[in-house]
Amino acid sequence: MALEHAILVSLLEKPGSGYELARRFDRSIGYFWTATHQQIYRVLKRMESDGLLAVRGLPQQDRPDKKEYSVMGPGRAALSQWLHEPIEPESIRHDLAVKIRGAAFDDPSALIREVERHRQVHSDRLAHYLAGELRDFTGPAAPTPLDAGQELQHVVLRGGIAYERMTIAWLDDVLATLRRLGMSHPRA
Amino acid sequence: MALEHAILVSLLEKPGSGYELARRFDRSIGYFWTATHQQIYRVLKRMESDGLLAVRGLPQQDRPDKKEYSVMGPGRAALSQWLHEPIEPESIRHDLAVKIRGAAFDDPSALIREVERHRQVHSDRLAHYLAGELRDFTGPAAPTPLDAGQELQHVVLRGGIAYERMTIAWLDDVLATLRRLGMSHPRA
DNA sequence: TCCTCATATGCAACTCGTTGCATAGCCAAG
DNA sequence: CTTGGCTATGCAACGAGTTGCATATGAGGA
């Protein structure tokens, strides 16, 4: 149930509405966690009724009202408790790897375009992460020195960068393998 | 719904029972997909009633009967169709990254043992993958030349190896960062 | 003898996550 | 003037995944 905790972290970094959270989950938090607005609204409601969050209705001019959530004492305590509990190291769930092994029972060369498309997506993500790193942490406009929260955000971002770089290199390996097999066995 | 397809791939590689599949999902297939026996039994039953799989009851001496599943024509067709459909590049779900950012609101040094434990798990996985690579693909007992299926299994395994190596390096970066913050801010 | 482990399958209840749809006002482009 | 996009929230239904428990047999150890 880490979505709850990811929301607590994000709201501690800055209070906001469900809609704003959903956008953060498409951006910085999205480097390591994804969530749709449906999930977020549902969990926010539960967390509020559990007393972890406070909600403040903000009537706005020219657009629908929004509800700004912020973390209460029990929310902070719940996060702290979770931080002290051990969690399971994650295991991967990689559809593309299933497809690659499945290619042994189909035409391997048919996968090449798909793998190229994935490579492009990861390459775009890498560029996006690197731009963010320059903007927030290593560029001339970045604060110096960084505070603890920023250092931790930076090390998480470095993880995202390392992940994308590793993935791109692996997809190149996959492409080379598929092309090699496609040449020697034009039709499997 | 890639569990279904992972099962098809695994049963095409070799027919087997639900129990055997569950063990494969703890081993080679588990490099990139996990599933419990509950999930597997449930999906096998559905796939059989959908006509994707054939089942053969094997009475055994000295132990409970087992049901051996194998892929039928429609199952192979379903896999082939899926292989030709584009899939979304996955996004990460990394609890540990949530914890690391959360450490800004708690004592960062409390996370060090947790990160060290994760590093150990990934290091063990890497050793396990490398042993498997030597046994099945690069060692003296490995078949030469490898057929297409084995080449594809190998490139997937290389992906697992690259992932673990990257993760270990990142966790070292995380540990260095946490230790640095722990020194300059003994209590956050 | 009893306990645990390994094989082998399964139900029931639950939470988590996704998808489609609905509402509602404003703005800008065509 | 209608279509689509952005802000902002939400319901309903479904599918995916987890956890706890139940059943059955035989082997080996305490």
TrEMBL record, chains A, B:
Q: Which InterPro entries does the entry link to? A: Tscrpt_reg_PadR_C, Tscrpt_reg_PadR_N, WH-like_DNA-bd_sf, WH_DNA-bd_sf
Residues of the Transcription regulator PadR C-terminal domain: 92-179
The family database entries (Pfam families) matched by this protein are listed as: PadR, Vir_act_alpha_C
Where does the record place the Transcription regulator PadR N-terminal domain? Answer: 7-80
Superkingdom, taxonomy of origin: Bacteria
What name does UniProt use for this protein? PadR family transcriptional regulator
Q: Which organism is it from?
A: Streptomyces curacoi
* Species classification: Bacteria, Bacillati, Actinomycetota, Actinomycetes, Kitasatosporales
